[in-house]
Structures are given as C-alpha cells and as structure tokens.
Amino acid sequence: MSAVVSIIVGLGNIFLNLIMVYTWVIIIASLLTWVRPDPYNPIVQILYKITEPAYALVRRFFPTVFNGIDLAPLIIIISLQVLQVIIASLLNAFVANF
To answer: What is the DSSP letter of 40?
Structure first.
C-alpha cells in the first residue's frame, strides 16, 4: 500500500470518528432536553451551539415535532449513520483496488 493510500485511509478514518463523536453529541444534547439544565452552563451552551445548526437544517426541510416530541435528533442520527456506512464502504472499496 502506498503512502498516498495510507494517508487517504487515515483521513477517512478520522472523518468516521468525527461522525461518531458528533452522533454522541447529538444524543447527549437530546437527553439534556429532558432534564431542563441551566441555560447559562457553558457545557450546555456549547452543546446548543454545536447541535442547533443541524437541527435548524433538518427543521427547514421536514416537520419534526409530532405530539410534542422533536424528532430532529433522530433524523440527524439516522442520516449520520447512513453517511458513516457509505464512507466506510467507499474506503473499503478504495483499499481493495490498491
């Protein structure tokens, strides 16, 4: 395996790990909405700043509130999982060709 292929696979794995971390951030932020944390807490503010742009993007295209339950985190998590599978299969196919 050449150095270029190793670098591409390494960058792909880093991107897959970032997707996994963002999935966990979405899960933690959605769980925090159940307990009403202090909005002035810096951790809560960071989670809000990280997740709200993705929520706004999903809410712009789909109605996400059904019976008082916001399904935007679920839609984002499923989309991230699909993206993760696609990228992993592309990386595997790329490695198999070299």
So the answer is: T
Q: What is the pLDDT of residues 52-80, one digit of tens each?
A: 999 999 999 989 999 989 999 999 999 99
Helix (H) or strand (E) holding 69: strand 69-70
What is the count of structural domains for the chain?
1
**Encoding tokens for residue 73?**
């985190």
Residues of the chain with pLDDT under 70: 1
Contact 25, 44 (CB under 8 A): no
Which domain range does residue 41 map to?
Answer: 3-97
Q: Considering Cα of 74, then 77, then 80, then 81, what sign does the dihedral take?
A: negative
